[in-house]
């Protein structure tokens, strides 16, 4: 139900790949070039992901987001007219081919998000948001594409593959599998992960006949979905970009993460009792962000500062949710906290609280409770949205984004749009540096200083 996109950009340095002579001198439209191969692979792959060629729409009768698509040949494989059902409901995946008149090395470190790199993603109409006249309602323009892809080539023959997929279809795990399959088909080896759409997602997430949520697992805000941009402008709404602030990248080496998890576990000697690297890092980031808010006097906004981080519900005992499940199975676990608590509690105390909540969770009941809670609120005309303020974590590490060789070797780095970092922290893999790459927006020198002070013992400066 969340109106968000999974966005990733993969960078391929042809000069470092095994057959870098195939595309040179900016021949981005070459028959055997990456753009052509990936476009042909996409046409083949859409047979297995037909809904990817659809549109995200709002069902006025049921009061919920849904995907509408042409249930037949993928729209990319046939000509469509404006009176065609496929045009109204699907129209296909927009595949953009672009060329940058510079060499790949001139981009600098592509693992650091910045506004200039946002040009490598499909045009920003996907992220368009509108602020209501009174400022208390979020208004969003629909319908929008479920998926878009942009391939940008550089003068040296290197290229960037940017992929945007709506959460109504795929989460990070499913998006990574889609790219694995796309690149595998492009290099001629067929599907790697066969998607399983045999299980009805509506059946899995169906609320109980009499919705009875056991806990308030999420807070709802009122979101208005408008069907036409002209209608939005006619009613006096203005476009509002997400604040991008200063996107910053921090590298946490694997060795430093090991030290961190020992400290976060209060230096226990029994390895079986150690927390995970992920738990330790999330606890540290929660404290660092709270400290930065207090240091910049942003704490006047609120005393509460929740943590939201994703839990993959695959293989958690929920029928139909195994590793082949292709839908969105991310559960946003919410942990209550206050700025005072986070500033005064040592790291091992914060992580202990986090682990205690995770251990006590009945994920099957939580997922059912969330479905019930969503149903009850939608009956009152509310659609789910993240509450503010909170620290929202996007965990994209450990996913096979670097196992996406389309014939020119695996990517050398991956990135995330800077404008999507305004209200969250994203964790990505950075295998070239043997690190996790943490992306965060810090809006002032004071906020950055306070944030870095908490994490400086574990990062590469």
Overview of the molecule:
Belongs to the plant acyltransferase family. GO terms for molecular function: acyltransferase activity, transferring groups other than amino-acyl groups. InterPro entries: CAT-like_dom_sf (IPR023213), Plant_Fungal_Acyltransferase (IPR050317). Pfam families: Transferase. β8 and β9 form a beta hairpin. With 461 residues, this protein is an alpha+beta fold. It folds into 2 domains: 217 residues, Chloramphenicol acetyltransferase-like domain (Chloramphenicol Acetyltransferase), CATH 3.30.559.10; 213 residues, Chloramphenicol acetyltransferase-like domain (Chloramphenicol Acetyltransferase), CATH 3.30.559.10. It is globular. Helix content is 26%, strand content 23%.
What spatial form do the alpha-carbon principal axes imply? globular
Number of domains: 2
Which spans of ≥5 residues are poorly predicted at pLDDT below 50?
Answer: 18-28, 73-90, 124-137, 229-244
Rg over C-alpha atoms, rounded to the nearest angstrom: 22 Å
Give the oligomeric state: single chain
What is the CATH superfamily label of the largest domain?
Answer: Chloramphenicol acetyltransferase-like domain
Helix content: 25-40%
Number of helices: 11
CATH architecture of the largest domain, by name, is: 2-Layer Sandwich
Could you tell me how far the N terminus lies from the C terminus, measured between alpha carbons in angstroms?
39 Å
CATH fold-type name of the largest domain: Chloramphenicol Acetyltransferase
In terms of DSSP E residues, the strand content is 15-25%
Number of strands: 20
What is the CATH C level class of the largest domain, in words? Alpha Beta
- Read across the widest sheet, the strand sequence of neighbours is 13-20-19-17-14-15
InterPro entries: CAT-like_dom_sf (IPR023213), Plant_Fungal_Acyltransferase (IPR050317)
GO molecular function: acyltransferase activity, transferring groups other than amino-acyl groups
Family: Belongs to the plant acyltransferase family.
Pfam family, one: Transferase
């Amino acid at each position: 139900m969340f109106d968000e996109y999974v966005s990733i950009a993969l960078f391929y340095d042809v000069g470092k790949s095994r057959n870098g002579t195939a595309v040179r001198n900016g021949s981005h439209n070459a028959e055997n070039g990456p753009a052509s191969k990936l476009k042909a692979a996409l046409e083949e792959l859409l047979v297995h992901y037909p809904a990817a060629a659809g549109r995200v729409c709002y069902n006025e009768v049921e009061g919920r987001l849904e995907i509408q698509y042409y249930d037949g040949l993928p729209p990319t494989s046939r000509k469509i007219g404006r009176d065609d059902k496929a045009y109204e409901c699907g129209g296909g995946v927009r595949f953009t081919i672009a060329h940058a008149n510079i060499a790949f090395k001139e981009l600098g470190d592509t693992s650091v998000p910045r506004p200039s790199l946002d040009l490598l993603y499909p045009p920003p109409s996907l992220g368009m948001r509108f602020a209501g006249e009174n400022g208390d309602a979020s208004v969003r323009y629909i319908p929008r594409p479920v998926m878009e892809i942009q391939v940008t080539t550089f003068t040296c023959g290197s290229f960037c593959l940017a992929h945007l997929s709506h959460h109504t279809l795929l989460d990070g795990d499913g998006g990574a599998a889609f790219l694995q399959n796309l690149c595998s088909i492009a290099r001629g080896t067929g599907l790697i992960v066969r998607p399983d759409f045999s299980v009805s997602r509506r059946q899995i997430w169906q609320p109980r006949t009499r919705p009875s949520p056991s806990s308030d697992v999420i807070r709802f805000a009122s979101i208005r979905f408008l069907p036409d941009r002209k209608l939005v402008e006619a009613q006096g709404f203005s476009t509002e970009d997400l604040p991008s602030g200063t996107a910053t990248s921090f590298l946490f080496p694997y060795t430093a993460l090991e030290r961190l998890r020992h400290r976060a576990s209060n230096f226990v000697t029994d390895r079986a009792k150690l927390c995970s690297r992920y738990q330790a890092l999330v606890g540290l980031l929660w404290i660092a962000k709270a400290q930065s808010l207090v240091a910049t006097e942003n704490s006047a906004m609120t005393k509460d500062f929740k943590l939201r981080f994703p839990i993959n519900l695959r293989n958690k005992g929920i029928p139909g949710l195994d590793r082949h499940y292709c839908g969105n199975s991310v559960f946003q676990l919410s942990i209550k906290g206050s700025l005072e608590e986070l500033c005064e509690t040592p790291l091992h105390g914060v992580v202990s609280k986090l682990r205690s909540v995770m251990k006590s969770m009945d994920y099957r009941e939580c997922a059912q409770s969330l479905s019930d809670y969503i149903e009850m609120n939608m009956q009152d005309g509310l659609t789910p949205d993240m509450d503010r303020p909170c620290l929202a974590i996007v965990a994209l590490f450990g996913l096979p984004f670097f196992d996406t060789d389309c014939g020119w070797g695996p990517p050398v780095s991956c990135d995330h749009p800077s404008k999507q970092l305004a209200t969250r922290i994203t964790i990505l893999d950075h295998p070239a540096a043997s690190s996790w790459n943490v992306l965060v927006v810090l809006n002032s020198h004071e906020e950055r200083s306070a944030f870095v002070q908490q994490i400086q013992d574990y990062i590469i400066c």
